[in-house]
Amino acid sequence: MNKLYSVTELAAELKVTPRALRFYEDKGLIVPQRAGKTRVYTHRDRGRIILILRGKRLGFSLREIAEWLDLYDQDPGQVEQMRLTLSKTRKRIKALEARQRDLEETLQELRGIETAVEDFLKSKGADAEAAE
Amino acid sequence: MNKLYSVTELAAELKVTPRALRFYEDKGLIVPQRAGKTRVYTHRDRGRIILILRGKRLGFSLREIAEWLDLYDQDPGQVEQMRLTLSKTRKRIKALEARQRDLEETLQELRGIETAVEDFLKSKGADAEAAE
DNA sequence: CAAGAATATGACGTAAAGGTAAACCAGCCG
DNA sequence: CGGCTGGTTTACCTTTACGTCATATTCTTG
Lengths: 132, 132
What we know:
By secondary structure, chain A is mainly α. Chain A has helices spanning about 5-15, 20-25, 45-55, 60-70, 80-125, and strands at about 35, 40.
């Protein structure tokens, strides 16, 4: 199961462009191996890129993503190192929980609006369906 | 309770720069009144800006935010209009729920990492605390 | 071996979201 | 009245995250 990918292959699978992958590499977020000059991506690279893309969807910059990307990929080194990892992890959890609250609030408001509008339409005897 | 604000006042309260507020206006996200040439912001403007900022924290572009901002601010007009509002609202809810799943996954992974690292430190007889 | 097809590097372009600086008014204060 | 304080444009600058060539090289396949 240790598939290897070319840029275009992996890019296609993850629905990004090869340019994007090279860009992430430029920024140090991934370091694919090379066969000669040609980039070769492993399963691990793929995993990191998926994390990057999820981070982006959540609105983080590549710089921020770079900062916590390594958390996923620690081998137990020295105790001091692990302590740092722990604190970073906790900080990141806090940040994400804050976003979660933003999201929850927004969703609640929108659900409120949804039912209000539904009720309005129902009171008009209008079907809530239709309308693109 | 109908306080009015100047750019700098409101900007300070919301922790953004006046430039940002003018920029949002430029993009049509807010339309403060004017006293002569001077911008005057109402409570309603303030509310909209808070929504904008929350949207930004969730990683949406100003263009996207602009598209759903009016949902919060509909007066029941014609039935057709409301139907459209309903469908837009539902789309937006879907999008936010998707982000919620991203967030939930990420949090779960990080919590996994957190306890793993905690256990590692515990096994080393090291205190999980300390380390900035 | 000639002719694509895929990759690489490098340079330049671009859209979004402001920051920053310049030049100009209006109101107010001592 | 002179000068600050805060406001308004206009214009250009910056950073991020790629897109888009141009050019060179390497692979592969008839």
